[in-house]
Specification:
By secondary structure, this protein is mainly α. The protein is 78% helix and 0% strand.
């Protein structure tokens, strides 16, 4: 981590960001490694199992390595959503009218995820856990609300800057807004595809979406990183 010049101390938020990066990197690495091993198992090592890869995918929760991958994947999403909430709260100066509904959705997402993991741990087929659709719907709702709230705030800041400086170039704010909307649209469309695939019990597409969701989430956060 680069140290500030002139003997200044490292800001607390920079230390927190470093810890956050290390934790999410570790969780992402475990998730990717377990998913890779599980993929090799179902398509190569255990391909001759009765029912083939399709049966192995349907009974994915019977493999501890896959359960670990799913658990780490959920926790990674919690951390990423928490960072988005923090940005949103800072942008709105910790206004309660913003914090309460967003925090409620976030807590609801975690509770639903825990219920999913508990049911999956009892041997229930993962793709038959209908409450997983609610989890995905909450993620989509958080994404849409976050984008609307932050975009509205950036619009307001841009308007104030234009009022203060008649010839102010607002291209920076315009670019931020475009990045927010574009990244949110791609993630929301992805979540909708995931929901539809899960609802119609398309196990192959659902598995593909689950394996990709963390990467999509990371790519969504990169353009949205605002130095607050």
């Amino acid at each position: 981590m680069r140290r500030p010049r002139h003997g200044q101390k490292i800001a607390n938020n920079r230390r927190a960001l470093l810890c956050y990066t290390l934790i999410t990197f570790a969780l992402g690495t475990v998730t990717f490694a377990c998913n890779t091993k599980y993929t090799v198992m179902i398509w190569i090592d255990l391909r001759d199992t009765p029912g083939g890869p399709a049966a192995l995918i349907e009974n994915a929760m019977h493999f501890r390595i896959n359960f670990l991958a799913i658990s780490c994947g959920y926790v990674t999403v919690w951390f990423m959503q928490a960072l988005l909430l923090y940005r949103c709260f800072v942008m709105w100066n910790w206004a309660r009218r913003v914090m309460i509904p967003m925090a409620a959705l976030y807590i609801g997402m975690i509770v639903v995820a825990i219920v999913i993991l508990v049911q999956a741990g009892t041997g229930v087929i993962f793709y038959n856990i209908d409450i997983a659709i609610a989890y995905l719907a909450i993620q989509a709702a958080l994404t849409v609300l976050y984008t609307v709230l932050v975009t509205k705030r950036v619009f307001a800041i841009r308007g104030k800057m234009k009022q203060a400086l008649a010839e102010y170039d607002s291209s920076t704010y315009d670019t931020i807004i475009l990045m927010l909307v574009e990244s949110a649209m791609s993630y929301t469309v992805f979540i909708i595809i995931f929901i539809v695939a899960f609802a119609v019990h398309s196990n192959s597409l659902s598995t593909l979406c689950f394996l990709s969701i963390n990467q999509i989430q990371v790519s969504r956060q990169k353009p949205e990183f605002l130095r607050l």
